[in-house]
Amino acid sequence: MKLKQNINLAVDGIIFGYQDHQLYVLLIKQKYGSQKDKWALPGGFVLDDEKLIDAVKREVKEETGVKVQYLEQLYTFGDDIDRDPRFRVVSVAYFGTVNPKHMELKPTTDALDAQWFSIAKMPKLAFDHNKIIEVALDRLRGKLNYQPIGFNLLDSKFPFSDLEQLYMTILDRDIDRRNFRKKILSFGFLEETDEFHKAGSGRPGKLFKFNSKKYKELEQEGISLEIKFA
Amino acid sequence: MKLKQNINLAVDGIIFGYQDHQLYVLLIKQKYGSQKDKWALPGGFVLDDEKLIDAVKREVKEETGVKVQYLEQLYTFGDDIDRDPRFRVVSVAYFGTVNPKHMELKPTTDALDAQWFSIAKMPKLAFDHNKIIEVALDRLRGKLNYQPIGFNLLDSKFPFSDLEQLYMTILDRDIDRRNFRKKILSFGFLEETDEFHKAGSGRPGKLFKFNSKKYKELEQEGISLEIKFA
DNA sequence: ACAAAAGTGTTCGCTTTACACCCATGT
DNA sequence: ACATGGGTGTAAAGCGAACACTTTTGT
Q1: A214 touches strand D (CB under 7 A)
Q2: Residue pLDDT, tens place only, B97-107
Q3: For a Cys-Cys bond, which of A79, A133, A196, B189 suits A204, CB 3.0-4.6 Å?
């Protein structure tokens, strides 16, 4: 029994980065095909003996030079049957994050160009990639409220105000500094360091780091980490 | 540029049903292959011009005769590279529900047999299907807390105690009757009918029905429907 | 001394929780 | 009359929301 299914399996990566109060997504310029010269999500076809998540890591690395820190499966988009006239493409989208240290781009031959685009001014992308980014953003916003995913977008040591700004940027609303700090610290997975952030002006802030070992313990104990704040 | 990817795309359906304080999953007996005679989730290969969700509906119907009411994408399982020696299979799993009226089975030639299995006594299944069911169950439990998904598992008119029992069965814990009723009714998407449930004994309970139009309005208004109860 | 950002506590109101008795029906 | 399940209110505690002044540093 041999199948003659004419479907090809691809992956796409929605990779978020954060810098200077702005949330960014990693995009590449299409080099071939009907969507040539449009910007698109990095991604490509899965190799026969390659795990899906490894395909995403590989494609993102090849196309942009960026090494992703965190990745999770988002959704499988497979209903746009006529997207490619030669065969049907079903694409498993993964969303991920990189911390600011790893945002530098090293364009390769696979892409004409690669760039970080601010979520605030997103161009019209190839295929249904604008829609996919919206889905990823919804997931990111949702996860901020019950998983410590925001830390992946910051340096390993960061002042509290950065975390606060990150949440405000992504959720697009004001947050009360006092309540936010109290709530986050009450979980107990943030560790105080003895270093300080040298600001341009104003009082220097203590640097904190995320203690992932402690987090896993709390997670194991089934403690609710829901983050609600004013 | 012709691809010679040797991957085939399948779908699996994790279909939940509920009756008599028991949560059930729909399974079929494998008729061919290395896993012959083991029980497995209904599913099969996607046709070239068929949407993923339609492939699930079709396969479940063909293999069990059951028409699914609600379906949503769960996860794509694609890392078990050696599951089938002839080619790699990547499977998009959908989880769904049927109400008690539609739980009757009409086995067809595609499956040796089809049956509802209680979650409480699940046999060892083919492939990684036990794991997939766990993932689906987690999602179902999670969704109970913020989406009115439970109603899909009941008849369109139901006494309040059925809803309560459903939640207790799926979440596997006690719930305070008074607080639960207050909370659910406060959302305003349940409609009282003038019919009564004729119990074997005891005072007959009023029948309610889920008003999905009202629910969509509330959803639109962005009102939080988080369900927490003692 | 002034500007800029960090650090910190208390009060109020709402939601969740805990809890027990009466009601309607069938036998 | 008794057994069975349905229907209901109130008080206490905990959590989220609102809110402003002091501290440290650079200029």
Answers
A1: no
A2: 999 999 998 86
A3: A196
CATH of the domain at A214: 1.10.10.10
- Residue B156, H or E segment: none
**Do both A97 and A23 map to the same domain?**
yes
Where does a domain end: B119, B143, B167? B143
Question: Closest nucleotide to B182's CA, by C1' atom?
Answer: D8
In a domain, A229, yes or no: no
> What pTM did the predictor assign?
0.93
Whether residue A138 sits in one domain with residue A38: yes
Within this chain, do residues B53 and B99 fall inside the same structural domain, yes or no? yes
Strand extents, DSSP E, B20-126: 22-29, 39-40, 43-45, 70-77, 88-97, 114-118
Interface test with B, best of A1, A2, A5, A74 (most B CBs within 10 A): A5
A203 CB below 7 A from strand D atoms: yes
Q: Whole-number mean pLDDT of chain A?
A: 93
* Segments forming the whole domain that contains residue A42: 7-143
Q: Which of the nucleotides lies closest to A165 (Cα–C1')?
A: C5
Query: Would you say A155 and A100 are in contact if contact means Cβ atoms under 8 Å apart?
Result: yes
Number of domains in chain A: 2
Domain co-membership, B25 together with B82: yes
Inside any domain, residue B130: yes
Task: Provide the pLDDT for residue B111.
Answer: 54
In a domain, A228, yes or no: no
Do residues A24 and A109 share a domain? yes
Q: Which of A143, A168, A191 is the last residue of a domain?
A: A143
If one counts every other C-beta atom within 10 angstroms of the C-beta of residue B207, the result is 19
Distance from C-alpha of B133 to C-alpha of B135, rounded to nearest angstrom: 5
For B72, the closest chain A residue by CA position comes to: A75
A161 touches strand C (CB under 7 A): yes
Q: Do B52 and A5 touch (CB under 8 A)?
A: no
Whole-number pLDDT of residue B221: 87
What CATH number corresponds to the domain at position A23?
3.90.79.10
Q: Is the pLDDT of residue A56 over 90?
A: yes
Tokens, residue A181? 């700090």
- Residue A114's CB is within 10 A of a number of other CB atoms, namely 21
- Please state whether strand D lies within 7 Å of residue A229 at its CB atom: yes
With an 8 Å Cβ cutoff, is A65 touching chain B?
Answer: no
Query: Is position A2 within any domain?
Result: no
Length of chain A: 230
Pick out chain B residues at pLDDT < 70. 1-3, 107-112, 230
Tens digit of each residue's pLDDT (9 = 90 or more) over B144-194? 999 999 999 999 999 999 999 999 999 999 999 999 999 999 999 999 999
pLDDT of residue B66: 95
Asked whether the beta carbons of A90 and A8 are under 8 A apart, the reply is yes
